[in-house]
Design a protein that fits this description.
By secondary structure, the protein is mainly beta. It has two domains: 90 residues, Immunoglobulin-like (Sandwich); 63 residues, no CATH class. The protein is built from three helices and 14 strands. The strands form four sheets. It has a six-stranded antiparallel β-sheet with strand order 1-2-3-8-5-6. It has a three-stranded mixed β-sheet with strand order 9-10-14. It has a three-stranded antiparallel β-sheet with strand order 11-12-13, with no helix packed on it. The chain starts with a helix and ends with a strand. The mean pLDDT is 89.
């Protein structure tokens, strides 16, 4: 969805807080975390040897990608960052479409032939979610019912 939005509007896929939430006064001060599309917040560990870090979460409701812990944004959290695990949060209610791990392992190349997986992260506040992929595939979740314009494996977290 972030790729389709970037293609239509020119808005970058990787976004600083000031683009994600222009009214948040912290937007100009956060230089080491970023939004990946509208639904992910990523906070890389930049300090050698660090196994945790302080992170400013954007406003809204977030789910820790690794633990499933639900957090209220708009403040600072301390994130665990064991070696090999970048702190990532998913906006509550987001519909994230990814390639299945076995598809990534074989290399991407012809993306439209690769199987994808859609994961809903918590109940969307409006009762529905939509992801429109760059190949035209649409994946929808509406009040507990899934639909897609091509074969997709579904999951709820």
């Amino acid at each position: 969805m972030a790729g389709a939005t970037a293609a239509r509007s020119g808005l970058p896929i990787i976004r600083p807080l000031l683009l994600t939430d222009p009214r948040d006064p912290r937007g100009w001060a956060i230089a080491d975390a970023y939004g990946y599309g509208p639904s992910l917040w990523v906070a890389p560990v930049l300090e050698a040897g660090a196994r945790e870090r302080e992170v400013d979460l954007p406003r809204g409701d977030w789910i820790d990608y690794w633990t499933g812990e639900e957090l209220a944004g708009g403040g600072e959290v301390v994130a665990s960052a064991p070696l090999g695990r970048i702190p990532v949060w998913v906006r509550r209610g987001a519909l994230i479409v990814t390639y299945r791990p076995e598809e990534v392992a074989t290399g991407l190349g012809e993306e439209t032939a690769k199987a994808v997986e859609a994961t809903l992260w918590g109940e969307p506040p409006c009762g529905r979610a939509l992801a429109r992929l760059t190949d035209g595939t649409e994946v929808r979740w509406t009040r507990g019912e899934w639909s897609a314009t091509r074969e997709v494996r579904f999951a709820v977290r």
